[in-house]
Amino acid sequence: MLQPQHITEFFINTFVKKGDVCIDATAGNGNDTLKLAKAVGDDGMVFAFDIQEIAIENTKALLLENNIKNTELILDSHSEMDKYINQKVKAVVFNLGYLPGGDHNLQTKWETTTIAIEKALELISGDGFIAIMIYYGKNSGTVEKDALMEFLKNLNHKNYTVTTHDFYNRPNNPPLTAIITKN
Fold first, then answer.
1. Whole-angstrom distance between the N-terminal and C-terminal Cα of the chain?
2. What pTM was computed for the model?
3. Contact 13, 39 (CB under 8 A)
4. What average pLDDT score do residues 95-121 get?
5. DSSP structural state of residue 52
């Protein structure tokens, strides 16, 4: 059965190549960091951001378990990515909401997320993409989703293409996926 994360995986598997540089803007438990690191291979690099030390630790453990070394884990907000990266990247992946298994009171906020997306737009290469998984629901996240959807709708269509993927007939606020590419 098609799951929301499969859309991001499709873009990673289709467009990320060996030697590329990518960003996991929300490391979480490290799943996207691992996928990106495998896709870029030993000659590539993945920068992974999170503001929670436990997320960095979880990601580090997953990478060690898989013998992955081509990553840099950064304990900082994704809105600060330009302080660490000054080169073009193939992909920037976001999973918004809270850390699965973590404190539900600590979650991404639209204010810093839109800043991070603006910075990611500057960093992605002409053939790159940004994938955003927007988790929302009863704990909030709806404010962030609504603000981000408005933000994405207003990106200049001459410069960017934004597609959204909604699991429309699924119950309980299934995540939305937004993909941004440069024109």
1. 31
2. 0.95
3. yes
4. 88
5. -
